[in-house]
Design a protein that fits this description.
The chain is mainly alpha-helical. Helix content is 63%, strand content 0%. The chain folds into 2 domains: 74 residues, Orthogonal Bundle (Arc Repressor Mutant, subunit A); 125 residues, Orthogonal Bundle (Tetracycline Repressor, domain 2), CATH 1.10.357.10. It has 9 helices and no strands. The two termini are 44 Å apart.
Length: 238
């Protein structure tokens, strides 16, 4: 049974000593500190001062816990006032909120679900974010455009998180890593065998941008695609 179909408090009996929110917040704290694998029922119980087995009364399974965590993270996105009537500003704000959440919780990749939990925060997100385009395109097109936007944000954030992790593991700054890589890059360029790589190395502006600038540059391209889809939809509308 879906976790949100289970009543949090029994109809009878004593008031529960803990809440799903307490359990979920403890799980997120552990994941932030040590990774998602650290958020076990035993560790969560120790975090909030409960018996491990007693927590299963509140959260029956690991899948339920992951659903609660995923929904909690969606609740961190500030979507107040959406939709505002300015779809581009709304989607820009949403994309930046989503990226920031990924960067705060880089372990989020481990809670991406193939099944939808339909938690309250996820439903709020659907209503507000998809609501920005609801008046402009049919629902199937809306779903496709949201998939395009989410795919860009999650891919960009995943790349940032991975790169930051590599730098931490190497103990190098980005400048040190580039300096260390320079002899190999010079060798490739001098070989003359890889003209596209050479063009990227010598001419591309994006690698020289800050992470924030790179993200916004790519986001504007995605929003341009959405704008074209909206224009086409308006032209086809009777």
């Amino acid at each position: 049974m879906n976790i949100w179909m289970r009543p949090e408090r029994p109809a009878r009996g004593p008031k529960p000593a803990y809440s799903r929110a307490q359990i979920t917040e403890a799980a997120v704290r552990l994941a932030d500190a040590e990774g998602l694998e650290a958020a076990t029922m035993r560790r969560i119980a120790a975090e909030i001062g409960a018996g491990a087995m007693s927590l299963y009364r509140y959260v029956p399974s690991r899948d339920d816990l992951v659903d609660l965590i995923a929904d909690h993270l969606m609740g961190e996105l500030d979507l107040a006032g959406l939709p505002s009537g300015d779809w581009r500003a709304d989607l820009t704000r949403y994309a930046c909120e989503l990226r920031a959440m990924w960067l705060r919780h880089p372990w989020i990749a481990g809670v991406q679900r193939s099944r939808a939990g339909f938690g309250p925060n996820q439903l709020r997100l659907i209503e507000r974010v998809m609501g920005t385009l609801d008046a402009h395109v049919p629902v199937d097109e809306n779903l496709s455009l949201m998939a395009l936007l989410n795919g860009y944000v999650e891919g960009a954030a995943r790349e940032e998180v991975t790169w930051a992790g590599e730098l931490r593991r190497s103990g190098l700054s980005e400048a040190d890593w580039l300096a260390q890589s320079y002899p190999r890059i010079r060798q490739i360029v001098d070989s003359g065998e890889y003209p596209i790589f050479t063009k990227i190395t010598l001419e591309a502006r994006q690698p020289r941008l800050s992470p924030d600038e790179r993200f916004r540059h790519g986001l504007e391209r995605v929003l341009d695609c959405i704008a074209l889809a909206l224009t086409e939809a308006a032209a086809e509308r009777p």
